[in-house]
């Protein structure tokens, strides 16, 4: 039934302008806006809709993952742009906040709305 449907994902934020600045200026994604909502244009050709939600409560799980060739370089660039890497109790994360040796290397951070994102090492 949906084999030809061009599905997309979406998530909420409390402040669209703040989200636009973060996703465009900090992460460097191409972002467009229409009807008060953002579209994040991904390198895969896919898109993610970001919509305003009064009383937004951030997701308690990772909503968007960014695969990267060099996770250390990606984390260093994010930190240089003012992003703080998240640390989770019970996870063995190094001084950069990267969890290594339990599947792919991964580090988490949040957008201004508190939604969890990650960078995942691909090599």
From TrEMBL:
VOC domain residues are: 5-122
- Which keywords has UniProt assigned to this entry? Lyase
- Keyword Lyase in record: yes
Is-annotated flag, keyword Lyase? yes
Molecular function GO labels: lyase activity
- Coiled-coil region: none
Task: Tell me the protein's name.
Answer: Catechol 2,3-dioxygenase-like lactoylglutathione lyase family enzyme
Which organism was this protein described from? Longispora fulva
